[in-house]
Design a protein that fits this description.
CATH class of the largest domain: Alpha Beta
Oligomer: single chain
CATH topology of the largest domain: Rossmann fold
Order of helices and strands: HEHEEHEHEEHEHEHEHEHEHHHEEE
CATH superfamily of the largest domain: Response regulator
Radius of gyration: 26 Å
Distance between the termini: 85 Å
Shape: globular
Low-confidence stretches: 1-31
Largest sheet: 8 strands, mixed
Number of strands: 14
């Protein structure tokens, strides 16, 4: 009897232990939080476009902060890298994120040239890019998505308006790098298609050395001598400040100035001051758009910044929304490839700019463009929406 009781007790103890283990495992499994994920944000935090890069960083961070630091239910470890002035610094920074940090997705990227240079790396690693600034047309967009615009679209959106308003030739000017080429091509092709004629020599846009051009006065003398009735330009960052302040002091100052919206966007407008007054620009966003998503976004932005949000911050905030939905749809253990596949199926984004969705062909937004003018808003100047122009991207 003694042996029977001992064996029965041992068996009972083993059974209890097994049940306890199963119960513990089940509890651990049911209460385990989703694994944290690393996302890389690459932006120009130094150089000509540092202000743009910081808005990209801050816009994405704002989305994270207003969503408990999570995307798709996963805690996010944001890895930030400096793009600098282009591919020479962008590619090494992105390579570190991919190979050392093992990010599941990349976002940000200010320069179109940087985007082009990153395509081979991202394809090799099978990692999606949800970029949040302009980029050129790419042959391979399998893993390239952008929440902002294609670089030729701003000029294309305003070209007919300029043609209809200006009784004569227009001088087109911008910086000599990929973004400048794309931005000016978008304007000049659409302007000529509308029946317009450029005042530039040989009928081709003028390009200024980048990033070395700080004195634009010789170019303004060319503009005046050309007989142009207006000017269209693309500049951003510190170059935009130099261009606008010098324009207001030049012989060309009486000519209407039209521009891609980056010329007067964000902090550069405050630096330009009254020199920027009355400039017309085209952009996919303005902080005075009246919709619920924009009211939420601008209130959250103003709670931590002493300025209105920019299109850069808005597009990066939207990149957070895209990744939030895609990661959430990519399963319990999201891989870069699963996230990329999920992006294709997310449909419309309720954005501060108004609702938009990705084009199946370009992976850039189908969205509305707005004409804005720099006007007084209280004691400050503001990019005020004048009218809607057209929708591009379909």
């Amino acid at each position: 009897m003694f042996h029977v009781h001992r064996r029965a007790g041992a068996a009972l103890a083993l059974a209890c232990a097994a049940l306890l283990a199963m119960s513990s495992c089940g509890a651990a499994k049911s209460s385990a939080a989703p694994a944290s994920l690393k996302v890389g944000l690459l932006a120009a935090l130094s150089g000509t476009y540092a202000a743009v890069g910081k808005d990209l960083r801050d816009g994405f961070q704002l989305y994270l902060d207003t969503h408990n630091g999570k995307l798709g239910g996963h805690q996010i470890d944001l890895v930030v890298g400096d793009e600098g002035d282009g591919p020479a610094t962008a590619v090494p920074a992105a390579t570190k994120m991919v190979k050392d940090d093992h990010v599941v997705a990349l976002t940000g990227v200010v320069g179109g040239g940087s985007v082009q240079a990153l395509v081979p790396l991202l394809n090799q690693a099978k990692i999606p890019l949800v970029g949040s600034n302009g980029r050129p047309q790419l042959k391979d967009v399998a893993r390239e998505w952008h929440t902002s615009f294609l670089s030729d679209e701003p000029g294309a959106a305003i070209a007919k308006y300029v043609h209809d308003k200006i009784p004569g030739t227009v001088f087109a000017i911008g910086p000599d790098y990929q973004g400048g080429y794309d931005e000016l091509r978008g304007f000049t092709e659409a302007f000529k298609a509308a029946g317009g004629q450029l005042a530039n020599k040989d009928g081709k846009a003028t390009f200024t050395p980048f990033p070395g051009t700080t004195n634009f006065m010789p170019y303004f003398a060319q503009i005046k001598a050309s007989g142009a009735k207006a000017v269209y330009c693309f500049y951003a960052g510190t170059a935009a400040v130099d261009f606008v302040k010098q324009y207001a002091q030049s012989d060309a100052k009486s000519l209407p100035l039209f521009a891609a919206g980056f010329l007067t966007e964000g902090g550069v407008l405050a630096a330009q001051g009254q020199s920027a007054r009355d400039i017309y620009s085209v952009l996919n966003y303005s902080p005075d758009l009246d919709n619920a998503a924009n009211r939420t976004f601008t209130a959250a932005w103003r709670a931590r910044h002493d300025s209105a949000p920019t299109t850069y911050a808005m597009a990066s905030y939207d990149a957070g929304a895209v990744l939030d939905r895609a990661i959430g749809a990519a399963g319990t253990n999201p891989t870069p490839e699963a996230i990329n596949a999920a992006i294709a199926g997310i449909g419309q984004i309720d954005s501060p700019r108004g609702s938009w969705e990705f084009s199946r062909n370009t992976h850039a937004p189908i969205q509305k463009w707005y004409l804005r003018q720099v006007r007084p808003d209280g004691r400050a100047l503001s990019n005020t929406v004048v009218e809607s122009l057209l929708t591009l991207g379909a």
